[in-house]
Amino acid sequence: MKVVNSLTIKRPDDWHLHLRDGAAIASVVRHSAERFGGALIMPNLKPPITTVDQAFEYRRRILMALPEGSQFVPYMTLYLTDNTTPEEIKLAAQNSFVIAAKLYPAGATTNSDGGVTDIKKMGHVFDAMVRWGLPLCVHGEVTDPSVDIFDREAVFVERVLSPIVRDHSDLKIVLEHVTTKEGVDFVCNCDPNVAATITAHHLLMNRNALFEGGLRPHNYCLPVAKREEHRQALIEAAISGNPKFFLGTDSAPHAKGAKEAACGCAGCYTAHAGIELYAEAFDKANALDMLEGFASFYGADFYGLPRNTDTITLVRQPRQITDLHPFGDSSLVPYRAGGSVAWTLEGLGDH
Ligand code: DOR
Ligand code: ZN
Q: Apex CA 351: angle with CA 311 and CA 176, to 5°?
């Protein structure tokens, strides 16, 4: 097989990104803006973004933090709570800058305390989302402490997602950061209105990476990485050309000290190599030709947004990853810190 040393694709978008708030935004958003045309911004701030007004203000802060001249588009999400009203959904759907609502089961992950405590009470909100055409992004894990952490996604699919799809068959749903074969199979078997994002880190590591020679807090994220057979299922889905599967990095910055702690936060920071890590995973699977659809087309198509028209070029050339990146008034440890990524974005400036 011919070795490809350079790959030019339409500029990708990131359909799942955490940018945090305040001074932290500027330190991380530049990494995304160098690579991606736009990104779907997660609303799990402290306090969360629960109204269209808050989303508008948050978007303004992101735009202000962008590098001079950047055309990066932040697409905003609303954080669903027990108190979200159908009126707020309607308002969100009528504003072009909010393009989805995010369901965090209360307690499932970082800043999800204000999330939804009982999905059964959300029927009127889901009905409004169907009526006004607002997609639902889902953190797919049950919070039941009696369920093994490695089973929480599969159990969520069976107990929670399946009934939502059954009862709201026209609702557009994205199973965010899918990590299991069960999740992939479920999405494949649904109608085209049900899709999933896949992160680069879940394509590149299985759960052994959490314990390689000792505890590895920087590989800890939620949903936690699963067994190798699940990683294989994710690779197959990503390279399949099935438009239900598209790129969402879930790049989730946390200060070094918050990760390297007795009770460390969940999240891998990958924005500094946001497309390069995917190129590496697709290359290892001999499927570089499938990267463009996954990274640059299917997500925009799902959300009914325009595909980017400009291009990026990736070259087969390892790039060293620094130990630390600035993060507001502290610093963070990026994914692969001290190591390297096998592909480099052409024209990449100072990193
Ligand atoms: O690992 C994660 N980090 N998973 C999430 O769902 C949230 C995210 C964060 O906000 O840090
Ligand atoms: Zn996330």
A: 60
